[in-house]
Amino acid sequence: MISVVIPTYQEAESIQLALRRAANALGRFGEEFELIVVDDASGDGTAELAESLQNELPVRVLRRAGKRGLATAVVEGWAMARGDVLGVMDGDLQHPPEVLAALAEAMRRTQADLVVASRYCSGGGARDWPWRRRLVSAAATHLAATVLPLRLSRTTDPMSGMFLVRARALDGLKFSPLGYKILLEVVAKGKIERSAEVPYQFAERERGSSKLGPPQIVEYLVHLARLALSTGQARAWARYALVGATGAAVNLAALYALAVRFRWPLALAAGAAIEAALLTNFFGNHWLTFSRRASGGLGPQLARYEMVCAPGAVLNLVLTIGSFRAGLPLLVAAAIGIVADGLVNLTLNIPAIWRIWGSPLP
After folding, report:
1. Domains along the chain with CATH numbers
2. What's residue 133's pLDDT?
3. Disulfide engineering: 350 pairs with which of 45, 100, 128, 146, CB 3.0-4.6 Å?
C-alpha cells in the first residue's frame, strides 16, 4: 500500500481538487493507496472539506492544534500510515498530483528505497518562476549540498517536497524535523541504499498564497546545522578543515622556500607552491577525511580534483602575484590568494569536491 501524506494549512481552495487528482493518479497505477491529510487547525475549513470526501476516496484526516509545521505534520501522518511505501506532496497543487503515478512506477521498476520528484534533473523545472525565486531556490539547494555533501549527493533536488520512500528505510530512526523540508531528514538519516528521481515541473500556486518567509528561512538554516551535527557530517567537516589548514601552511612554506631561499621566479614559485598545497589537500582528504572508504582510482580521482579546484588555484596565483607587485609582503600576498581560493571552493565547489570520493556516510 502507498500512503501519501498531504500536510495542509489554509488550503480550502485547493484541497479537494488535489485529493481527487492524487486519487485518480494512484488509482491508475493499480496499487492500493490512502491519502492522509494532516491539517494544522486551518480556519478556512480545509479539514472539513477533506473529510467530506471520505465516502468517495480513501482519505483520512488528522487535525492538529495550532500551526506546528509541515515537517512534523508529515512525520505524524507517516506514524498513522498503513502503507509499506510512504509519500508526501503539497495540497496547493504546486506539486502536480499526477506525478505520484510516475514516482510509484519508478519505485517498482528500480526497486529504489527513495524516489524523488526533482526540478533539477533532466526534464524538470519550475514554470513561470521569476529570477529572484529561481535564485533563492538554487542557493538553498546548493547550500544544503554544501553543508551535507556526503548525504545529499543522492539527489539533485534535496529541497523537493514530493517523494516516495519505503517504510523500512525509516525503521528505528528518530526524526527531529524543523520547518518544511522533510526530505532533508529522510536523505540524511534514512537507510537509503538505492534512490531514483522523476522529473517534474513545479507549478505556481493556482489558489492561496505562499507561506515562505524569514521565519522559514531561519528554520531551514538551523535544520541544516542540526543535521550536520546529528549525522556525523560535522566531524567530517572538522577533518576537512584540518587538511585545508595544512594545505595553506604548505603553500606559504613552499612559496617562501622557492621564491626567497632558492630565488625562483615568482610566477613559477607561486604556481609550484599552489600545486604542492593541492596535492597535500588531496592526499590528506583521501587518507583522513575519507579514510573509511577511500580505495583505488587515485589517478582519476586526482585528475578530477585538480580540474574542480583549477579556478580557485588560478585566482590564488593571480592575486598572489598581483598583491606582491602592488607592494604587499610576499607571505601577506600569498595569504590573500589562499583565502580567495578557499572561498571559491567553499562557496562553489564543495559538493563536486566531496563527490570525488563518492557518497557513503562519514
Report:
1. 2-211 (3.90.550.10), 233-355 (no CATH)
2. 75
3. 146
